[in-house]
Design goal:
Blueprint: E1 2-7, H1 14-24, E2 29-32, E3 35-38, E4 41-45, H2 54-61, H3 66-79, E5 83-88, H4 91-101, E6 108-111, H5 112-115, H6 118-131, E7 134-136, H7 140-146, E8 150-158, E9 164-171, H8 184-196, E10 201-210, E11 215-224, H9 229-248, E12 252-263
Parallel strand pairs: 1-5, 1-6, 2-5, 11-12
Antiparallel strand pairs: 2-3, 3-4, 7-9, 8-9, 10-11
Amino acid sequence: MEVFALVGPSGTGKSHRALEVADRYSIDYIIDDGLLIKDQQVIAGISSKKEDNKLTAIKRALFSFPEHREAVKEAIRRHRPDKILVISTSEKMVNKIVERLEIPRPHTMIHIEDIASADDIAAAKEERDKRGKHVIPVSYIEVKKSFPGQLVGRIWFFRKNGDRRDKTIVRPPFSYFGKVSVKQRVIRDIVGYILRNMDNITQHTCDISFESEHINVSISVVVKYGISIPFLASSMRRKIRGSVQYFTGLEVGLVNIRVEGLTL
């Protein structure tokens, strides 16, 4: 199986150009926003554009939900595609998707700047930011049957062989909620709640740092004498990473733990 990737920031026109890229490289299957698509028909998955908020939409697009992920993996095994085009916002996210779906790393990485002009990208971002319009590489009829978001219209695309195909423009529910930002204080509150409810920790401090695509958490603690520090640290990492990712939708990179003292 050959895996291709189309990468670019959100709203730069990736899905708009997906069919052109697939046609150029003779790719029949596309993974986009939680869907496995073949010949403009959805054959597996759930669209992230069905979600009510951006945080769960991101998790849906990254196949974070086990039942959703397994259904798409099974469809890939059943169809056995020769080529797949994966669409995502960064190379790191592409690698996360292929790892979760257990398919090979990308054979070819295509960036939106390679196939679209600066003016085209700017126009696409304006449509996304000001009007909440999203393009998906699925036929208008297919979307009209099952998509709960508001249909805005369609645009036409001509293939190399002269066939005319359409792509659908939708305005998903989360487009009406504006942008979502998570402050450091919120994450510190989540971490603090977890640590206060762990019996073997008597004092703690927490620092948060934001990277481009994830956050790092640094914790200093004082713990009760007599407990297994490696076991306690492992438990803290698991609870903090799981809770922060669940409640905020943000990916957690490092969870650094420093034991500063013991109490009887």
